[in-house]
Amino acid sequence: MITVPNEHFYIIKEKIKEAPTFVFSVLDNIIKGTVLAGSTNYESLLIKTDSGLYYVTGLSSDESFLENIVSIYEESVNQGNRFTLFSNDVTWNQEIEKSLKVKKIQRYCFSFNVASYKNRKRYDSSKFNVTKINQELIENCLEFGKQYYDEYWDSTEDFLQNGIGFCVKDKERIISEGVSIFKSNNYAEIDIITDLNYRGKGLACIVAEQFIDYCLSHNIQPRWDCDVDNFASISLGSKLGFNDPKAYAIYVKIS
């Protein structure tokens, strides 16, 4: 297994057409990460973030490459580090399930229909204070605080410089948040939370609309992913123009 040099990331981007947003975040040097390959022809690839997210793609018959993945997994177990492996390939799924002691979680990624989004009836946000997230709001967040941004963005500062985030406030209290858990030059994946006491008022839609509008105005494609059994998220996404779900798998260590 070799480390792909940063100056070859553009080659990897040309090879990968569909992948989780964090993969493109690494390839665009927006978050810290490493690209590993089975050989210099880059037929088998493992893209990882410093926080312990991995995505495997390419030739699944490369036994040496698979052995290296097993070693990385075992090292993460021994050191108590995070190991979350993403795969959207059936043959890779089979190899992972044979070789690693992991739990499988099925997820959906959705296609975004911009025409459907623009033609829908928008929620009335005039009664709410909707604002862009800043340092002060992060310090008084509902859910997405410093620990969240340190894990997924390397730091709060990196998120504020490169990420997207909006919140809804009731006076000084944050009651709903929508932020980019990952963002690349071309994609932004949204993460949403609403205060339990304020659910059912359309706040998630309002904050998502702000997020999507920002993406469209900056030529960024919004992305929506969720677990296959998260029916509330699937329903909300469909109202916002996210449809045509495609399944993929993530694998986490069994503790």
From TrEMBL:
Cross-referenced InterPro entries, in alphabetical order? Acyl_CoA_acyltransferase, GNAT_acetyltra_YdfB-like, GNAT_dom
Family matches, as Pfam families: GNAT_acetyltran
According to the lineage, what is the superkingdom? Bacteria
Sorted alphabetically, which keywords does the UniProt record give? Transferase
Domain named N-acetyltransferase is located at 128-255
Query: Does Transferase count among this protein's keywords?
Result: yes
* Molecular function terms from GO: acyltransferase activity, transferring groups other than amino-acyl groups
The record's listing under PANTHER family reads: FR47-LIKE DOMAIN-CONTAINING PROTEIN-RELATED, PTHR31143
Protein name as annotated: GNAT family N-acetyltransferase
